[in-house]
Amino acid sequence: MGKNKLSKTVSPLELVTSEIVGPSSSHTAGVMRIGRTIAQHIHPVGTVKILLYNSLADTGDAHMTKSALVAGLLGWDDSDPRIPFSFRYAEDAGLQIKWSHKRDETVHPNTLLATLQDAHGTLHVYKGVSLGGGRFKVTQLHNHPTEAP
Could you list the residue range(s) of the whole structural domain that residue 31 is in? Predict the structure, then answer.
């Protein structure tokens, strides 16, 4: 199946005027926007598997990367004050997040893979890259029906 590119570029005006919860545009804002872009295409249910690569894996907790990604999957805005508590809200929404980390110098340092299932049992895999300054790219790698667990 062909790759489906889902991207958004943030204008300089948006970047300097936006309020971002978290210390890093690459590890917080870009990652949150990746999650939100994915959530705009599917409504995840059940277990969400996230693989963080390289720099994202190294700073995932300290830079609020994980909280920001989960907040994005919940569809929240960059300035939402609930971001630090997104895990609690995800659990309340029935989402279980399973994290893994990998070092792979052949991929961009701020890369993640998200594997999610929708309510119809279709498995979706997205690759997200946070490019800095809140900019990002999301590519849908594939989707296919699965048997419901």
Answer: 4-145
